[in-house]
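The instructor's notes for this session suggest beginning with a concrete chain rather than abstract definitions. Hand out the sequence below and ask the class to guess, before any prediction is shown, which regions might be ordered.
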Amino acid sequence: MRVPVQWLHEYCRPELDAAGLAERLAMTGTEVERVEHHGVAALERFVVGRVLSADPHPDADRLRVCTVDVGEAEPSQIVCGAPNVAAGQTVAVAKPGAILPDGTKLKVVKLRGQTSAGMILAEDEVGIGTDHDGIMVLSEDGLTPGAPLRDVLPIATDVLDLEITQNRPDCLGVYGVAREVHAATGAALVPPPWNEDPGRPGSLEAVRVEVTDAERCPRFTARAFENVRIGPSPRWLKARLMAAGQRPISNVVDITNYVMLLTGQPLHAFDLDRVAGARLTVRRARSGEQMQTLDGQTRTLTDDMVLIADAEGPTSIAGVMGGARSEVGPDTRRVLMEAATWNGPNIHRTSLRLGLRTEASGRFEKQLEPEQAMDAQAVAAQLMIELCGARLVPGTIDVGGPGAPPATIRLRDARVAGLLGLEIPRQRSAEILRALEFDTADAPDGLDVTVPSFRRGDVTREADLIEEVARLGALAVLPATLPPRTGVSGRLTREQRLRRRASDALAAQGLHETVGWSFSAPEQAERLRIGARPFLALANPMSREQARMRTVLLGGLLDALRRNRARGADAIRLFEAGAVYLPGDQLLPHEPYRIAALLTGPVRRPTWREQSPRSADFYTAKGILGSLLDALHAPWSLTPGAPEPYLHPGRAAALLVAGRPAGWVGEIHPQVAADWDFSDVLAGFEVDFATIAAAAEEPAYRDVTGFPEVREDLAVIVPETVTAAEVVAAALTAGEPLLASAEVFDVYRDAERIGAGHVSLALRLSYRAADRTLTDEEVAARRRQIVVALTEQLQGRVRES
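After discussion, reveal the predicted structure:
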């Protein structure tokens, strides 16, 4: 939510700049994503001017050469293309050096041969509206040329971009944020703007309302206005809407948006003369029923959605968007202002199914409270009378009424100290809660706290009150203490230690850890070619892109890889450790913990000796996986072949740990990589951590012998179908107990010299005994045994040259 600081200051003005206020809000639980500046910069270059003359440009039919008094010794010459500029007008002027909202810095320029020293401004050129058809003509009341324009128009403000959590819908309005600022800083808070309500309760004869689904519509309120004059809103209201991210349209529509931004409660304005039968019914839609919404689209509804209908059919999708048939237009003279409370989860489902997310649905889905409807009606009535010259018809439709009576919760001093590890004086707790508009009364062991209606859904128990006290008055001074638990040590479990060791091993290989969503889009499984596999679907997803629980980690890594590549990264090495979610027995999913890695690009930085290092491939991923498994002391081997459909069929292998399947390593199939906009090689692995942890061995240490080892090389020719791992395993088994190690250090292929379908592997053998120096005869005997094993078991032969 965007909160213009200038608007916020109307209700609470702390002695902090925008950055300081953002920090204070963040430290007390209101997340501030960023602080932005809206409007113009270099404010001293924006002044009030008076047009002394406006003569036609000699070389351009649509331009005028104006002489403008800007409060300096000599008038300025400004070339203007607005059709409404005329001598005698008081106008807004930007002098050279002024910075416009789009970042343009004005200079003295020549337009068709005439010098222009500045600009006479339209609304959109200072960010207080969208009108560009003509310049702003200011009222002459007390304005003198050269006066600062910021004293006349709200041309600049800082904006706090807030991330409001699901449990705090009360902060979806400027006044709700002001209430939070008051509690966090101690700055004075003015009374709510809805305290003065020009409306009165009573029956309303202009229209009848029937609510047939009270569960999905706990409260429906409406007021009627006559003699409404449709026109543009005043500039102060346009400026606030623009700064908050809303586009001004007309005074009635702007009032609904303004009140929503101020109170957090959305409203909808009906053209009362276009409500067929002067009757509205709140009901469930019929399956397949259609209506045209304000955006011009025809929407097909389901029987779980709620709509507002008149005598001719649907006229509004409840809580989401109004209908085109009863919208307010230039000819509107009577307005019905509706403010209702809707069931939050139902609005969320409706918005998702229609693919239609609005400012209203984003608020209603967080579950607003019924009392907010009349707060919004009060402010809207004031503005309709003031800005539209409307007459408020006596009476108010109110179906459902306010919510449940306020709850009173006991806040015990001992419980506060027990949960926080710090004693908070009772008086301080009461002070914090009263600042948040909770009522408090002394009790024998603490406070009896009455929860205000706008916090009804969030604060329901004693721990919630303690959280309010802590975030505003204790978190910054809490001591570091351990929780009071008996019989529990602070040691990590074996699996936790192995997880940390695994992350450290991958970080040591130059990989960066990512934390991805546990959810995925349905399309992701199709792109990975695993769309037919079982999955867990969310009943109430945050968005369509997060409608399923992930079944592999690879999809999230591919998304992260693409985002990094799109931002200029070349060599990218990422890994993620976390759970995937597979359908299990009964209602509980199976949540195996996995580790996955993905890399692309050069394996080293270019140097003057190696300007084009090789790119990551199967062997790069295999080396990193081998380092990981060796760090965990888990015995492993690979079986050639692609065990997953998203792998390259000839450049992948299945991982076996202690003989059990544990995952895969290899290159991603080129067609799958292309679906993520990659044309180069992507390599990685994904392994099941439980299988690895079960096979991981504790390190066994032995004394280092002082006797020398004997090294020799052996070249053996074997069929191509025999793997290097099989050769090494056969050599180690045959050479026991004197053969300490065996490794392949060279591979040679030559159909003429060693035969087609065969490969020569060069082995480096190391012999050692713990208690003596080996003799040539002992080493030769072991070598003969190794040769026999390679010949008989693997159909190999020793290569002589």
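Then share the key points. DSSP finds 20 helices and 39 strands in the chain. The two ends are 76 Å apart (CA to CA).
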